[in-house]
Amino acid sequence: MKKYSVGIDLGGTKVLIALVDRETGEVLSSVKKKTKKDKGPKNIIRKMTDGVEELLEEMSVLKDEISSIGIGAAGQIDRENGILIGAPNLDCYDLNIREFISSNFDLPVFLGNDVEIATIGEMKFGAAKGCDDFVCVFVGTGVGSAIVKDGKIIHGATGTAGEIGHIIVDLNGRPCACGAHGCLEAYASRSAIERRIEGALKKGRHSVILDYMESGKSMTSSMIQKSIERDDELVKACVDEASEYLSGGIASIINFVNPKLIVLGGGLIEAVDYFYKNTIKKAKAKSLPVPASKIEFKKAALGDFSGVIGAAFLEDGKL
Questions:
Q1: CB atoms within 10 A of CB 256
Q2: Among 315, 250, 234, which residue's Cα sits nearest to residue 282?
């Protein structure tokens, strides 16, 4: 067996590329690059290929030592053909990622959903290790999830199962990047919190988050956490609203899927413990009593690396 794989986690605001030891799951080296949808899909492909080249050069690894390149993309994907069907947060549609990447490196390339690869990482080496019946929910730029039953990820008839971010929580609600209205993602993601805070600031509300914000740069989960630590009324109110909606979505998972475990991850969960704890408490309260009494919650254990580690094992096929 070849010793290494390359894992790529393509998210809404960044791409993380890592060289992974296939035996231990250890990330030996990684490269992070920002993604900007306004620069187009060709720029995103270039950043991925540049990142892989940087890694191989830095670690003095030959292509002959690489088993595969696995990619998780934030959006709907065609696994069989390696096509990113649609990623609204990246403004990418019908992008043949496999063709572009394999032509550059002459290696097997596998494509999965970004939450799917994070779930694989957590199942093999993280919070869900040893559990074969669980759901992962990741909250960051968007809200995504993956369902694992009998140790296998459920993909669904069209390969799009697990899109919790696009369950409708308000029939006449806020517009979502997917084109619909009232999606959970439009209420419970970090992006949704950012929009709510910025809207309030424009109306003249005060917040200590202004002490951390820089012109032209996005609000981060770390900024939100620092503001909560200073007991900022506006930020806490916006985070509480997001938690209220997310807990409802998770309660629906508990009632409908009835998993043993729910793993929560993503930048917002990782950085803002207040959000994580409140969401769990509310989700249990909103669920049916019997499944609520049995459900277990864990934070994702691999942090930023859950996706790249999972992507490195996409070729295994059993997942």
A1: 9
A2: 250
Q: Which of 89, 11, 103, 5 is nearest to 49 (CA)?
A: 103
Q: Residue 113 to residues 46, 283, 302: CA-CA distances in angstroms? A: 20, 25, 17
Phi-psi region of 75 (alpha: psi -120 to 50; beta: other; left: phi over 0): left
In CATH, the architecture of 4-121+305-316 is 2-Layer Sandwich (3.30)
C-alpha–C-alpha distance, residues 220 and 200, integer Å: 17
Residue range(s) occupied by CATH 3.30.420.40 in the chain: 4-121+305-316, 130-300
d(CA 278, CA 275): 5
For the segment 145-198, what is each residue's pLDDT rounded down to a tens digit? Answer: 999 999 999 999 988 899 999 999 999 999 998 899 999 999 999 999 999 999
pTM of the model: 0.88
**89, 95 in Cβ contact below 8 A?**
no
